[in-house]
Amino acid sequence: MSQDESLWVREDADRGKWRDAERARLNRREIQHALNSGQISRRELVKWGLYPAPP
Questions:
Q1: What is the per-residue pLDDT across 20-50, written as a single tens digit (0 to 9) for each?
Q2: What is the rounded end-to-end Cα distance, in angstroms, of the chain?
């Protein structure tokens, strides 16, 4: 893992934590791709609680 990828998980963390962190990273990338390609909207992300609502 590079320095950037290990930002939230300690180097000596167990394998499960690394697996969870990798899964979360892939999920965020999938959401970003869907948002950029127009498959979902910011409003949907707000309704699902995945994006902060505007003040």
A1: 888 998 999 999 999 999 999 999 999 999 8
A2: 37
Total of domains in the chain: 1
CB within 8 Å of 52: residues ≥ 6 apart: 46
With b meaning 16 or more CB within 10 Å and e meaning fewer, what string describes 24-46?
eeeeeeebeeebeeeeeeeeebe
8 part of a folded domain: no
